Amino acid sequence: MCRHLVYLGPPAPLSRLLFDPPHGLEHQSWAPRDMRGGGTINADGFGLGWFPSADLPQPVVYRSARPLWSDLALPALAAATTSGAVLAAVRSATAGMPVTESAAAPFHDGPWLFSHNGRVTGWPDSVTGVAAGLPVRDLITLDAPTDSALLWALVRARLRAGGPLGDTLSQVVGLVAAAAPGSRLNLLLTDGRSVAAVTYGHALSVRAGDGTVLVASEPLDDGPAWRPVPEHSLLVADPSAVHISEGIFS
Ligand code: GLN
Q1: Number of domains within the chain
Q2: Quick check: pTM over 0.90?
């Protein structure tokens, strides 16, 4: 279990995602509510990726191998940093995978920010055939020797070839789920304008309205506007519309 979220909308302080809500990402790091798939807390690192302004089309990324709550500078930085497009994640490392800064989401390249919540069954042998489709360059430049970093390499190769966000995620989930049945593959991807997400083994909720959309592993508060995204769905959204395609992996 990791916890992750994407916010798209008018620029707002990062603290409104991390610290201010009663069940913001900092709270989810030490008191997550939906712990299917194992794990108890998300203390093995965190990451923030945010687009600072429309003039700077590339996101800024800050990752750490420490628990989010232990970064004493972060509350003030998050209150002073505003953005209209954010991906944030806290990590609970899967057994056998290293706790390093580079294993924490978001994984990033150009305008893209990516996160994986779950694990690939039988890693790494189960996905040898899937990885064989990647250029060797992509394999030797993996961020970390983890399942999430390989998933990112598979996603990134398709994005670079011009694949749309949603189709790219569903293709990669289809490939990996076939090669490694029983995997948990909740994926989250944004280019700063839209967000795509897959539910495959873990929770996800969405809240949209007033020109904003927020997609998160767990609702940040008890407000009535949150709705759960059904299992085996592909969500594609921007601040003006949310589309959920259900049952596409069953
Ligand atoms: N398997 C991934 C990792 O170890 C994601 C873990 C998770 O979702 N808890 O980084």
Answers
A1: 1
A2: yes
Helices (H), 132-189: 136-140, 147-160, 165-179
- For residue 80, the CA-to-ligand 1 centroid distance in Å is 29
CA 198/CA 98 separation, integer angstroms: 25
Q: Ligand 1 atom closest to Cα of 117?
A: 8
Atom of ligand 1 nearest to the CA of 148: 2
Which residue minimizes the CA distance to atom 9 of ligand 1? 1
Per-residue pLDDT of the chain (250 residues; tens, 9 = 90+): 799 999 999 999 999 999 999 999 999 999 999 877 777 899 999 999 999 987 777 999 999 999 999 999 999 999 999 999 999 999 999 999 999 999 999 999 999 999 999 999 999 999 999 999 899 999 999 999 999 999 999 999 999 999 999 999 999 999 999 999 999 999 999 999 999 999 999 999 999 999 999 999 999 999 999 999 999 999 999 999 999 999 998 6
- Domain presence at residue 77: yes
Q: Is 54 a catalytic residue?
A: no
**Closest residue to atom 10 of ligand 1, CA basis:** 93
CATH code for the domain of 13: 3.60.20.10
At which residue do the structure tokens 């969500």 appear? 235
- Chain-centre distance of CA 140, in angstroms? 22
Sign of CA dihedral 171, 175, 176, 178: positive
Residues with CB under 6 A from ligand 1: 1-2, 39, 91-94, 97, 103, 116-119, 146-148
Residue 250 lies in a domain: no
Domain hosting 115: range is 3-245
